[in-house]
């Protein structure tokens, strides 16, 4: 795949889907900034794997739901590389509970971690990418942001917000040649879905037309496409990668 840009920041990249996105983008020759919040050893393991495969990576600590930390992370990258070409807003959390038992704190924690962080990333990258009149951002949303899910009123609100916000950023960024798209994964095999009970997983699998959970690499491929030159006329798109579960 062909990329005009030279570097990328992937948030929450020390494990799961983020780690796979980081490794995949490094394989195309991009310098990858691996963001982590607390476990440096996991981020170092991803960096090591990238370097062993001949790629280039750096590690950057930030809790991306905290404005100052996310802004500083982007500033560090621009100071080091002279630019940030691509951003993947991948960091996210769940705090599932039926709405009747969900506190406002459970709700706002997830909104801050998933939606506010993505807003900060989009806004800051728009500012800095505007200087070069080039850039692309992919926001990792969720199928749940499209169809809703019991026990996930907070998460579905955050991811639904990411989808429509992506479209608004796409409209603001287009005149500066900066593209914003989102990917909505279905159920993907990571620690996040490991939290689900086996019977719940089996029930979901029954309803997925491709009859299985997805692999993180299948999300990473969609992200690479949406950042690459091959999608140069695609912006404001919400790309479903869900095995046909929601079409
Ligand atoms: P994961 O829990 O394995 O990894 C998430 C990563 O994000 C972790 O490393 C975590 O430390 C990091 N993170 C969370 N909040 C952060 C913050 N404020 N600052 C910095 N890092 C932070 O989860 P995953 O399954 O790999 O999920 C990645 C993304 O994909 C999330 O946005 C998630 O909502 C989305 N998603 C996952 C699935 C799935 O089935 N796994 C489905 C749809 C969408």
Give the secondary structure arrangement, pairings included.
Elements: E1 7-10, H1 16-27, E2 31-36, H2 40-52, E3 56-61, H3 67-81, E4 86-89, H4 104-132, E5 135-140, H5 144-147, H6 153-173, E6 178-185, H7 191-194, H8 198-207, H9 216-227, E7 238-241
Parallel strand pairs: 1-2, 1-4, 2-3, 4-5, 5-6, 6-7
Helix pairs in contact: 1-2, 1-9, 3-4, 4-6
Nicotinamide-adenine-dinucleotide binds next to helix 1, helix 4 and helix 7.
EC number: 1.1.1.100
Catalytic activity: a (3R)-hydroxyacyl-[ACP] + NADP(+) = a 3-oxoacyl-[ACP] + NADPH + H(+)
Subunit structure: Homotetramer.
What are the defining features of this structure?
single chain; 247 residues; alpha/beta; seven-stranded parallel sheet; 9 helices; 49% helix; globular; binds nicotinamide-adenine-dinucleotide; SDR_fam
């Amino acid at each position: 795949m062909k990329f005009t840009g030279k570097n990328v920041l992937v948030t929450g990249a020390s494990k799961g889907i983020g780690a796979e996105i980081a490794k995949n983008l490094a394989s195309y020759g991009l310098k990858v900034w691996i963001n982590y919040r607390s476990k440096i050893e996991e981020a170092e393991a991803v960096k090591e794997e990238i370097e062993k495969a001949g790629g280039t990576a750096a590690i950057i600590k930030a809790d991306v739901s905290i404005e100052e930390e996310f802004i500083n992370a982007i500033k560090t990258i621009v100071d080091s590389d002279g630019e940030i070409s691509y951003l993947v807003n991948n960091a996210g959390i769940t705090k599932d509970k039926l709405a009747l038992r969900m506190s406002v704190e459970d709700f706002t924690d997830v909104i801050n971690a998933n939606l506010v962080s993505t807003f900060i990333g989009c806004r800051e990258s728009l500012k800095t990418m505007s200087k070069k009149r080039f850039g692309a951002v992919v926001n990792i949303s969720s199928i749940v942001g499209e169809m809703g899910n019991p026990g996930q009123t907070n998460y579905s609100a955050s991811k639904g917000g990411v989808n429509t916000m992506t479209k608004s950023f796409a409209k603001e960024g287009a005149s500066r040649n900066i593209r914003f798209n989102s990917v909505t994964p279905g159920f993907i095999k990571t620690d996040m879905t490991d939290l689900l009970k086996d019977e719940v997983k089996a029930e979901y699998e029954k309803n997925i037309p491709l009859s299985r959970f997805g692999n993180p690499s299948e999300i990473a491929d969609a992200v690479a496409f949406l950042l690459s030159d091959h999608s140069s006329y695609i912006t404001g798109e919400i790309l479903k990668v869900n095995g046909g579960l929601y079409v």
